[in-house]
Amino acid sequence: MDAPRPAEEEACRARPVGTVAQARLDARGLSKLKWRCRRGLLENDLFIERFFSVHEADLTVGHAWGLHMLMDLADNDLLDLLLKRKEPGAETTEEVREVLEMLRSGRHVSCGGGSRLRDQGHDNFKETRQ
Q1: Residue 90 near residue 97 (C-beta atoms within 8 A)
Q2: What's the predicted TM-score (pTM) here?
Q3: Is 37 left (phi over 0), alpha (psi -120 to 50) or beta?
Q4: Residue 5, exposed/middle/buried by CB under 10 A (0-12, 13-18, 19+)?
Q5: Rounded to the nearest 10 degrees, how much is the dihedral formed by the CA atoms of 34, 38, 44, 48?
């Protein structure tokens, strides 16, 4: 696969508007988004894995753009947002806020003992309902 050209990268950064933002994300776009969302912290990966398992079929181009913006954050900054230790700034776009709420909703990672993570050798985390 060819490396993206600067113009293509810039186009990916452009905020989608109108009907483009509401268009469903195609299979290729979803695959690229999942690749982009790979993180270095297990805790972030758990939030992202759950996000895709719940919302994958309904993701729009606008959601993908919002998720791309969140993935530009450092791992610890992203985790602070996901755990509600921090809230996004006033300049944060609607798409980013919506995706952040989608990531936060449902089950979250907390300290304790959990079978799924314990099976993977991570005894100090569990998934719980919010």
Answers
A1: no
A2: 0.67
A3: alpha
A4: exposed
A5: 10
